């Protein structure tokens, strides 16, 4: 079955073979189709992080956008001997905002049943954490025994 795009392409090919002028519509459609065919598939925003973690921990130990079991997806999961490391990647300009956005998600991934054995919960941001941020994480760990960490990774 032919659709309208097949007809335009067929007409353009016919004109090219017969050395006849191609209509502007057919030419435009050919150019548009050509660029659609050669464009690269879109990459996940997690691609640079996933690549980094796979180089660190091995491709077989790293998964991105993994189902959490509660209808959400963990950005990056790393399998280690003593459990899993869950990474939540944030793009906010400040570590404080990254922590605020990620902690609830990480807690849900780690503790909402059913869950995997989680050893580390890591918030990833592009900015370095400051003294107040380190103190905040220390308090969370001390008071609630939450294994939450912050890692700066600039991509």
Walk me through what this model shows.
46% of the residues lie in helices and 22% in strands. It is an alpha/beta fold and 155 residues long. Strands 1-2-3-4-5 form a five-stranded mixed β-sheet. Strand 1 and strand 2 (73-80) form a beta hairpin.
Q: Please state roughly what percent of the residues sit in beta strands, choosing from under 5%, 5-15%, 15-25%, 25-35%, 35-45% or over 45%.
A: 15-25%
- Low-confidence segments, given as residue ranges, are none
Order of strands across the biggest sheet? Answer: 1-2-3-4-5
Oligomer: single chain
What are the salient characteristics of this protein?
single chain; 155 residues; alpha/beta; five-stranded mixed beta sheet; 5 strands; 22% strand
Question: What would a concise description of this structure say?
Answer:
This protein is of the alpha/beta class and about 160 residues long.
Chart the SSEs and their pairings.
Elements (H helix, E strand, L loop, with lengths): L3 H14 L6 H15 L8 H11 L4 E6 L5 E8 L2 E7 L5 H17 L6 E8 L5 H14 L3 E5 L3
């Amino acid at each position: 079955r032919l659709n309208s795009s097949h007809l335009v392409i067929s007409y353009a090919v016919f004109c090219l073979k017969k050395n006849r002028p191609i209509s502007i519509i057919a030419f435009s459609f050919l150019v548009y189709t050509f660029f659609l065919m050669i464009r690269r598939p879109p990459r996940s925003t997690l691609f640079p992080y996933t690549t980094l973690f796979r180089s660190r921990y091995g491709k077989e130990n790293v998964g991105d956008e993994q189902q959490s079991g509660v209808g959400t997806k963990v950005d990056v999961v790393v399998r280690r001997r003593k459990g899993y490391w869950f990474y939540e990647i944030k793009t906010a300009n400040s570590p404080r905002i990254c922590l605020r956005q990620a902690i609830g998600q990480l807690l849900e991934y780690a503790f909402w049943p059913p869950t995997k054995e989680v050893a580390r919960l890591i918030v990833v941001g592009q900015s370095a954490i400051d003294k107040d941020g380190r103190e905040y994480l220390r308090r969370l760990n001390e008071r609630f025994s939450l294994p939450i960490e912050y890692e700066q990774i600039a991509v």
